[in-house]
Amino acid sequence: MTDQFQKAMSLADLPEGSMRDCVLEGREIVVCRTKDGGLYALDNICTHAFARMCEGRLRGTRLICPLHGAAFDLRDGRALGAPASKPLGCHEVRISGDDIEVRVAAAAPIPAPQL
After folding, report:
1. Which pTM does this prediction carry?
2. Which of 2, 18, 32, 70 has a CA-to-CA distance to 54 between 20 and 30 Å?
């Protein structure tokens, strides 16, 4: 983990209501921009079955896994129901000029798949 923000992408590359993945400090991160302009950065790997969250759906402040439909709250990463029970890691995000920057949080241990 670093104490510094790093450029994840240009703000213009992430329209409202969309998400994009990036790799920072060797970790896959998904950056989400809600239709009301909120910005969130979370780990990109589902805690249930290791699917890439950027391939799922964004519904308001819910991020839905493409594999089994597990839903997570963008605001704090918490699992909103089965089949996932463990939260996604969250990262601090900010806008700096025309860029979206992320400060990567300390890595949590990788959970075993919940099959």
Report:
1. 0.90
2. 2
